[in-house]
Structure formats: C-alpha cells, structure tokens
Design goal:
- It is a single chain.
- By secondary structure, the chain is of the alpha+beta class.
- The protein folds into 3 domains: 176 residues, Jelly Rolls (Sandwich), CATH 2.60.120.10; 47 residues; 59 residues, Homeodomain-like (Arc Repressor Mutant, subunit A, Orthogonal Bundle).
- The chain has 13 helices and 10 strands.
- Strands 1, 2, 3, 4, 5, 6, 7, 8, 9 and 10 form a 10-stranded antiparallel β-sheet that branches.
- A hairpin with a 4-residue loop joins strand 4 and strand 5.
- The termini are far apart.
- 34% of the residues are buried.
- The N terminus is likely disordered.
C-alpha cells in the first residue's frame, strides 16, 4: 500500500493497515456520520487504543453497549470494537493481537522495547472494558504519536506504532483519567429519534415528560444520554434548532417575522426577537436586511 493512511481516508473511507504482525492501524476521517463494521471477536488476547482528535467516535463493545469518545480523549479498550461510528470525526485506532504482536516484539531486543502487552492491558483495563484518558503529561505524547498517523506514509507507520506502544507502557493509569459512560445502543437510537422529533415539530412546545413517555425512556436517563450525545441539554438543543430554522426563513423567504416566530414555537414576537438577538447578536429584522439572499428576493 503506497498511499498514506490520510489519503485513504480523505473521502470518508476507513481502511485498516497492518503495520507489523499483530498490529493494525485504522485512520478515520468523516464529514458526516459513518458506521464501520469490523471482523474482530472479543478475546483475552486482543487490545485496542483509540484516540479522537475531532468530532465524536462511538466504540461498540461485545455486549452491545457504546463508549463515546470526544475530541481530546484517548481510550484503551479491552477488546477492539465490533462497530465504530464516527460523526464529523478525525480519529485513529490501533488494534492489537497481543499474542502475535508479543512474538514479533520479542525478536527486537536491540530496540530496547522489552514490554509485556498483557501487563499493559491489565494495568489500564483490569476487570473493566476500557480506560479513558484526557490530555496531560505522558498522555499528550502518546496522543501526539497517534496524530502523526494522520500524515505518516506507510513506510514510517511501523516505527510510529512501536513508539506509541513504548509511550503507552510508560503512562500511569491513575493520572489524567476520566469517567466515561456506556449507553445501550437502544438508548442512543432513542435519543437520535428524540432529536429528529424535535426538529420536525419546532412549532410545538414539547415537555421533557412528554418526550420521556413518547420514547419510553426514563426522564433522568434521557437527559443524561441526550447531553452526552449532543453536548447540550434537550432545551438548549431545541432552542438552537429553532434559531437555525428562523435564520434560514429570514434569509430565504419573505415570510413576516411574526409568522416565523410562530413557526418556530414562539407565541410572543418580543420573546422571539430577544432569543434571536441572543443567538445571532442582532434582531430578526436586522439579520434579514444583512442577508444577500433576502435582498435578492426583495428585488
């Protein structure tokens, strides 16, 4: 393979590349939402490190639960993901067959890389499915090494993978760790449906209790899961959807401002104007006057 991993991924492709026995690199780059099925089976002999540089990556474990990684997070997982979903993401995964990789590393004593891959797995994961780290100290160096996979050509990937394993061995699992949450895939699917329902019903004021009943999800779980997926509360996200729709209507149509306010769920013109100004720094009328599309419609 003569192309770089980055070039292979530029069109939202994610192609694995075996850099040396037992170690496979996967570069992910996507402008939208993509899902990648993988052939891995969960095994005591497997290990995966995955680093998210931008966007969101969902790592589906063998039990069907999902670990969500956000930009700036590095995870060491007890098993490679069966499915990886990535949304507007740039990420790198290193999947390791420890038995095969250990045999290869044992033949390289001159590199001074004597290491026990199983001990690395025990150190990070123990009896858990994963361990997530945020930037700090040695973790930054490990993340920097993974970032270089985005630009390195195939000839340099083997040495880069060895460097990463060496850095991983030196990281203490007790430093810069954070608690990540698994959510069952059914809950994540429900949250996405909730978001779609909000987007399709901007003129209606739907309570959290109504959403909870409608989608069969406990209220607290729904709020926590939604915020984990979209980075903001349901109310904040719904308001953002309303303001985005209002801005599009102001720019692309001559619909009266009062009608736009009603269409996006505001009975009061004054409250709509105040909310819009808070979001865009100007009133709806000022926004329309500054819009080239709106000016064309008037002409």
């Amino acid at each position: 393979m003569s192309e770089t991993a980055l070039q292979l991924a530029e069109e939202s492709l994610a192609l694995p590349l075996k850099v040396f026995p037992g170690v496979e690199i996967l570069v992910m780059r996507s402008q939208g939402e993509l899902s990648l099925k993988r052939p891995f089976q969960c095994s005591a002999e497997m290990l995966e490190a995955i680093c998210c540089f931008d966007g969101v990556v969902e790592h589906e474990c063998a039990e069907g639960a999902l670990l969500r990684l956000k930009a700036g997070e590095l995870a060491v997982c007890a098993c490679p993901a069966r499915t990886l979903r990535y949304t507007r993401a740039i990420a790198v995964s290193i999947a390791i067959d420890m038995k095969e990789a250990q045999a290869f590393l044992s033949k390289l004593p001159e590199l001074g890389l004597a290491m026990d891959l199983r001990e690395i797995k025990r150190s990070f994961c123990g009896d858990k499915s994963y361990h997530v780290l945020r930037p700090g100290g040695k973790t930054i160096k490990a993340m920097q090494a993974m970032r270089r996979f985005l630009a390195e050509d195939s000839d340099g990937l083997s040495l880069l993978a060895l460097e990463f394993l060496f850095l991983l061995r030196k990281i203490s699992k007790d430093v810069y760790s954070c608690q990540a949450q698994y959510f069952p895939s059914c809950q994540l699917d429900a949250v996405r449906k909730i978001r779609a329902h909000l987007a399709e019903n901007l003129s209606r004021r739907i309570t959290l209790e109504d959403l909870s009943k409608m989608f069969g999800m406990p209220l607290t779980t729904m709020k926590i899961c939604f915020k984990s997926v979209y980075g903001e509360s349901i109310g904040q996200h719904a308001k953002g959807l309303r303001m985005t729709q209002a801005a599009e209507l102001l720019s692309d149509s001559l619909m009266p401002v009062a009608d736009i306010a009603e269409k996006v769920g505001y009975e009061s013109h004054a409250k709509f104007s105040a909310a819009f100004k808070c979001a865009y720094g100007c009133t709806p009328s000022e926004y329309r006057k500054a819009s080239p599309k709106a000016l064309e419609l008037v002409e």
